[in-house]
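Input sequence (138 aa), recorded before submission:
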Amino acid sequence: MDAGYHSRRLMELTGLDVEENQARRLLNDLDAYSASTDRQNDDEAQVAHDWVSEVYTPVTLAAPRSLRRKIEPAELFHEVLEHRWYMSEFSGNDVNIMDAVADYVATVLPNKPDEDAVVGLDTQEMPIVADIDAGRKG
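Predicted structure, token format:
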């Protein structure tokens, strides 16, 4: 498969524009949804639409509005899937995705830095670094 295949495929099916690694994981979850609802032979676009409205959107909206700025929706979903996997491994049972998102929102998300604070970080030279560099040159 060529670079960006999963991102393009997810975009075609759902309209979600996400990074390649996220797209791969989301497509895997979409496939699992299709199998668990016995819809492997249904129209792929309709199954994808239902997955977005029944799984993806409820998960991404489960975070309180005050915490949503900490992470983009696709990354939140991606991390919830990973969190679910770890919870399932620890418990020895398959964990429901809404239980995983509730645990993630309660235990992980509040401790994450705001994405704006990380992504929007001003990368100008910090004064202390400039002073140190000036001292080395002088």
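Checked by second reader. The two ends are 54 Å apart (CA to CA).
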